[in-house]
Write a structure and sequence with these properties.
Keywords: Cell outer membrane, Membrane, Repeat, Signal, Transmembrane, Transmembrane beta strand. It is found in: Membrane. Helices cover about 5% and strands about 50% of the residues. The protein is mainly β and about 450 residues long. A 16-stranded antiparallel beta sheet has the order 6-7-8-9-10-11-12-13-14-15-16-17-18-19-20-21, with no helix packed on it. A three-stranded mixed beta sheet has the order 3-5-4, with helices on one face. The chain is globular and about 85 Å long.
Length: about 450
């Protein structure tokens, strides 16, 4: 019934978009006893000519009226269409500023006029505090952050955070205006300063300072395009190993970048998806001290194995490539560093080209695919937020032949370009976000790869 109602709303919305402002869509169900199925007939008529005389909004003590009104896609004086009202109510709920949104209608000053009443109940949109955790790649880590999703009641997003781990420190600031200049365009700015120390998996440290401007534009109801450009300055520190053939202690890299990202969101629920496709494709040009094109594609498709059982299967794919435009190669500081996020069962920077001394170099190409089945744990209440999963991963990485000064002493570190693993996971929808522990057994690996049986990470969609 939920899919049927969604189809009715979509048909009415499309009819409205084609100029039939009062379109009314109803469904008639006829049961076929012989086959045990229902035949659906959609009845479309013009509907009564009724106009919106006034829109009353109550309950919003913090949120400005215009933040709610701009989600409706219609205003006072426009034709009244029930499907447009339902879609507007859904859009207001999706803001996640309100615990409840109730929409009622009342008579207007004339028979062909109607008053729309929208009552909302606000909830907290600010998050202040400190979190701590543990990652198998970064060790003990913590963060102090301030996040406001409805800054000053204008629907703006603001976040400032300071993080620390055994491998470094981070300082981040982000601001987003979701309706830049009143248009359906999201504009934002990011700034950061990051300090990474030399570790067992990274044989040089670095300090990076940079920022970027962003602009997001919806192309369709499911496809969004974002454009970005920025600058970063990186200084190499704590470089004491043979990797100095690639970078030197104190060496400075400046880069200016510009690019775009296409995002397709066809999921039924962005937080707990059970069906649909989510995919991104991104390209950027990196200049100044570099001359590169970096491309990445990622996608994940979900499908319920058994309806209403909570058992969901998914297939995830990812790939990346860096092209040098001047033929001089790619510096190690811009190379991909695939690891456990590509194939579980390996350390971070655990596989790929290395020097003879075992120092990780990186690669200019990678590709991977993963299949996973997630399921509720029998006997545990749903409010515990715990679920299990089984998975199989496969990933391929290229050699270091395109790395600047690369390919010098890396003959045996990537002798098996294809890596595979299988394993099981425990996933917890915690107050700090979705966390997961993965136990993985590698099946294919190269001579110098570094494996790990268990890893603890934050669960991500891609």
């Amino acid at each position: 019934m939920q899919d049927l109602q969604a189809t009715i709303e979509d048909m009415a919305y499309e009819a409205t978009a084609q100029g039939y402002s009062f379109a009314d869509v109803r469904a008639r169900l006829d049961r076929d006893v012989a086959t045990g199925k229902f035949n659906v007939t959609y009845l479309v008529d013009e509907g009564a000519r009724v106009y919106v005389e006034r829109i009353n909004i109550t309950g919003n003590e913090k949120t400005r009226d215009f933040v709610i009104r701009r989600e409706l896609n219609f205003s006072e004086g426009d034709p009244f269409n029930r499907s447009m009202v339902i879609r507007g109510r859904t859009a207001i709920q999706a803001l996640d500023y309100f615990s409840s949104v109730n929409v009622t209608t009342g008579p207007g000053s004339a028979p062909d006029k109607i008053v729309l009443n929208i009552n909302v109940e606000e909830k907290s949109t600010g998050e202040y505090g400190a979190t701590a955790g543990y990652s198998t790649s970064d060790g003990i880590l913590g963060e102090v952050s301030l996040t406001e999703r409805n800054f000053l009641g204008r629907g703006q997003y603001l976040r400032a955070a300071i993080g620390a781990s055994q491998s470094g420190r981070t300082f981040d600031f982000s601001f987003t205006e979701p309706r830049f200049m009143g248009l359906k365009v999201a504009a934002g700015v990011d700034a950061y300063h990051r300090i990474y120390e030399e570790t067992d998996s990274s044989f040089y440290g670095a300090q990076s300072t940079g920022g970027q401007l962003r602009l997001g534009v919806p192309l369709t109801s499911s496809l969004n395009a974002s454009f970005f450009g920025g600058y970063e300055r990186k200084v190499i520190t704590d470089n004491t190993g043979p990797i100095s053939q690639f970078v030197a202690d104190g060496q400075e890299f400046n880069k200016a970048f510009i690019g775009y990202t296409l995002t397709w969101n066809g999921l039924d629920d962005i937080k707990n998806p059970t069906e649909g496709l989510y995919a991104t494709f991104s390209q950027q040009y990196i200049g100044w001290d570099h001359n590169l094109i970096k491309s990445e594609a990622r996608g994940r498709y979900f499908v319920p194995l058994i309806q209403d059982s909570g058992i969901v299967a998914s297939v995830r794919g990812q790939a990346g490539m860096i092209n040098s435009l001047d033929g001089e190669g790619v510096n190690v500081v811009e190379a991909f560093s695939p690891g456990s996020q590509l194939v579980r069962g390996f350390e971070g920077r655990g596989f790929g080209p290395r020097t003879a001394a075992g120092e990780f170099i990186g690669t200019t190409m990678f590709a991977g695919i993963s299949a996973e089945i997630e399921f509720p744990i029998p006997g545990l209440p749903e409010n515990y937020g715990l679920s299990g999963a089984v998975f199989a991963d496969a990933g391929w990485v290229g050699d270091a032949s395109e790395i600047l000064n690369g390919g010098l002493q890396t003959a045996t570190s990537n002798d098996q370009p294809l890596r595979t693993s299988v394993g099981a996971s425990l996933i917890w929808d915690s107050p700090f976000g979705p966390l997961r522990g993965d136990v993985a057994q590698t099946l294919n690996k190269s001579t110098d790869d570094r494996t790990q049986l268990f890893q603890f990470t934050i669960s991500t969609l891609l």
